[in-house]
Amino acid sequence: MNVITFQGTANFLAMIYPSSFIIEGITYKSVEHFYQAQKIRELVNENHAKTIIAVNDTTSVRRVAQGILKRCRVDPNITKRWKMNRCANVLYRGVWSKFRQCPELASKLLKTEYKLLINSFDGDDIFTSGCSPVQLREWIRAHFGCVIEVPYEFLPADQFPVIAQGYNILGVVTMWPRDNDFIARENVLDVETSFKPAVGADSMTGTQGHNIACAREAARRRDVFARKLGINAIVDAKHEKTSDKIIVINLSYLLILLSSKCIDC
């Protein structure tokens, strides 16, 4: 079983799961707090971001952020473009900090091993699979034996592979620190360098350094991962031919071979 699905507010993988961490001297109560605060910080200003940080209930953070954007008359198209281009970058910093600063949660994350993490929720098609758990299971069964290329670089959301009816950004981004063994080798990614404040909603800061690190990591792991999947060989991305036993991948990607069953986390 190469797939783990998660949903619900009480799941430790969720954005709204209460788990405080510190970034640049500021304490955030959850990944949702950091993500929404950074969005308001970049699209409005720091004072309004402080309003987000002060919210106690993690389930209310998104609603408060939406209210601020509306009151400040931020064009919805600008917000949408920001989400599309910045969500993976911003979300990763929050996820990385959450698990890096909480060894207990980090241990639980590492126990998911190489499995594909999928956030199943039908209210969003960017962060999640965009469908219900039942629909997701049906999709997994229908794609039994298919290979999913998991990107390890900061791409616009619509360049991530479609999982069921969404891009599953949260699931993919949560796999990045796990697969980089970030606890044992914390310098794999230079997080502080990779996440300097954006200059405008379309900025993709820190991408080059992150991509180089992840490409090296993917290259180091690809043969081990292939053995786990039962794949005989992986050839370089320059080659175009594939067969049942040879799969072409880019060095900035890892492969997940879907099984017919999944595990609820």
From TrEMBL:
<dbReference type="InterPro" id="IPR012816">
    <property type="entry name" value="NADAR"/>
</dbReference>
<feature type="domain" description="NADAR">
    <location>
        <begin position="16"/>
        <end position="137"/>
    </location>
</feature>
<dbReference type="InterPro" id="IPR037238">
    <property type="entry name" value="YbiA-like_sf"/>
</dbReference>
<dbReference type="Pfam" id="PF08719">
    <property type="entry name" value="NADAR"/>
</dbReference>
<protein>
    <submittedName>
        <fullName>NADAR domain-containing protein</fullName>
    </submittedName>
</protein>
